[in-house]
Amino acid sequence: QKEVEQNSGPLSVPEGAIASLNCTYSDRGSQSFFWYRQYSGKSPELIMSIYSNGDKEDGRFTAQLNKASQYVSLLIRDSQPSDSATYLCAVTGNQFYFGTGTSLTVIP
Amino acid sequence: DTAVSQTPKYLVTQMGNDKSIKCEQNLGHDTMYWYKQDSKKFLKIMFSYNNKELIINETVPNRFSPKSPDKAHLNLHINSLELGDSAVYFCASSPTGVTTDTQYFGPGTRLTVL
């Protein structure tokens, strides 16, 4: 079992819709959770970080964490074509683990 | 100002050669990392240094040797390159290295071994 699992996609949504990205992790001791966005040929850049159960909102982005169920999600409201990228979930406990990413395409 | 920089951006070389990738950060961070991203986009940590000391050394072949001359630099030297070493290598840094830290990534070095 991988430490961090994501649906690889591709996930396609129309412009203006909500995109929902999910991630599960195996280490119950994990403490910090991150969502990174990676455009093709570019480096990962941080979108959101979340450390406690519940929701955290930042503009059009909402991260949700449920430690009991060991999942973290990212919602993107009013999706824009510029949101088209690969979204990487990262989890830290004793180590820093990335998921394999979900490819998102927002269709104009 | 470039926060985390890597050189070279592209590296094409023959099997068996030795090559180095350099990384520098001007963020004043204490911790630096090397990651390998394969063709399936899987990003895996290789090494982590905190104030020039090796903190994380994942299971990578000993052909890979990191060197940190000071806390702003972390270089990666690869001996006897193999086809499977072809990937994008990212350097990253974080303020202290604690688990809540955000990591800031360099632009990556695309290594192609022929």
Attribute tags:
heterodimer, A: 108 residues, mainly beta, six-stranded mixed β-sheet, 0% helix, globular, B: 114 residues, seven-stranded mixed β-sheet, four-stranded antiparallel β-sheet, 11 strands
Give the secondary structure arrangement, pairings included.
The complex is a heterodimer of chains A (108) and B (114).
Chain A (H helix, E strand, L loop, with lengths): L3 E3 L4 E4 L4 E7 L6 E7 L6 E6 L3 E5 L2 E6 L4 E6 L8 E8 L3 E3 L3 E6 L1
Parallel strand pairs in A: 2-11
Antiparallel strand pairs in A: 1-3, 3-8, 4-5, 4-9, 6-7, 7-8, 9-10, 9-11
Chain B lengths: L3 E4 L2 E4 L5 E7 L5 E7 L5 E8 L2 E5 L6 E7 L2 E6 L8 E8 L9 E2 L3 E5 L1
Parallel strand pairs in B: 2-11
Antiparallel strand pairs in B: 1-3, 3-8, 4-5, 4-9, 5-6, 7-8, 9-10, 9-11
Question: How would you describe what is shown here?
Answer:
The complex is a heterodimer of chains A (108) and B (114). Chain A is mainly β and 108 residues long. Chain A is built from no helices and eleven strands. In chain A, the strands form two sheets. In chain A, strands 2, 4, 5, 9, 10 and 11 form a six-stranded mixed beta sheet that branches. A five-stranded antiparallel beta sheet of chain A has the order 1-3-8-7-6, with no helix packed on it. In chain A, strand 7 (61-66) and strand 8 form a beta hairpin. Chain A is globular and about 40 Å long. The termini of chain A are far apart. The mean pLDDT of chain A is 93. In chain B, 0% of the residues lie in helices and 55% in strands. In chain B, strand 7 and strand 8 form a beta hairpin. The radius of gyration of chain B is 13 Å and the shape is globular.
